[in-house]
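Homework help board

Subject: predicted structure for assignment chain

Our instructor gave us this sequence and asked us to write out the predicted structure in token form, then describe one feature. I got the tokens but I'm not sure how to describe them. Can anyone check?
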Amino acid sequence: MENLIHIAEEALEALKTEGADKAKCDVGYTVTHEFNVDGGKFSLFRTLFDKHLSMTAIRGGKKGTVRQNRYDPDTVRELAHDCLATAESAAEDPAWDIAPLQTNRDFEYGAVKPELDLLFERCRELMEDIARDYPKVMMEQMIVSHMEICSIHANTNGVVFSEHCGKYAISLMFSAHEGAKSSSFYGSGIITDDLDKPFIACGSIAKDLEDIEKQITTVGLEGKFDGVMVLTPGCLAEFLSYALGSFAGESGILEGTSPWKDKLGQKVADRSITISAAPLDDRIICGERVTADGYEAQNYDVIREGVLESFMLQQYAANKTGFARSLNSSFSIVVASGSKPLAEILPTIRKGIVVGRFSGGQPSSNGDFSGVAKNSFLIEDGKLTDALSETMISGNLASMLENVYAISSDTVCDGMSVLPYMAFDGITISGK
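My token output:
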């Protein structure tokens, strides 16, 4: 770590020598140990080494940023020169800035060093569990890795944050087969900082495997109706990414296209909805400690009991618009759970659909969306019935958030987010 700090100091000094008024740099490395499974068999073990150096300079209100995967002294000097040349050709904008001096900290968290033997045993155990409990499932690809990350963020205001962390990541891609019939592909995964329990018991892996076996045989939906759409936690993450990115994120606020641009402190969603960006939540693994702008990360609520509490803006966008900077720059989303489990919510739905995956284009700036519901099931008279072949769903994200049917008490914690099942009424569902 001391060597990285020395490199950061050299980088800042080089940027100042080249004429920077203000400057920042990020320097570090990642060591990745990775197991691969292809077609149900172990195919690869490798170790990857990755270095990074990012330098940003501001001079006369103009900003330049350059990146390199080396940080020897010659590279640092060359990169500093290139960084100022990039700034010189940029447009002037007084909103560019760097973080002020804070209390500098050293962060160490997660599983810094891997237990490779145990990691391999957990991989093999997962393959055995799947073969025994889900015999129709073919593991198309499994990538299991451990990442050790060391990094320094420093700037010319005196900010120096160091981070040393480690985590395990499990990514699965699978399908189910029976004779000549097969399901579509589906994915599942987790991030964890310990190997205390079998992978099959983590996140939504077991549920995802169970559902894919039920999707070998699908039926086409006849007709069209307005009903209840139940999003699985994984699919909910995708919809929230669309909604929060468009309505509370930087582009919608900077460009003035967000329907929430004038609604800070006002109700924008059902009172049952509380959404937090919470990288420091105990259930988030190796969440952000230092923002991309060089601030110490803190948790905050984007929406609390339906009220818009904060936009999701980094330093530049905050300076540009006059709104407050958000307290972290991650998407470690935690959604408050409801009072009833999914098993008690489904029987109350007359007609609807459970959606595991969504395939569609980017929603419009006002939130209109339309696409194909993948890995989905029909709900009729309170019961899950057929697995559906590709079925269209459409609606509006802003209206959807104000028209919540139910939120489950059961949640999925995959190390990246904490999400319940969430049901929305008034969604248009159509088939042939």
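Reply (TA_rk): Your tokens look well-formed. For the description, you could write something like this. The mean pLDDT is 95. That's the kind of observation they're looking for.
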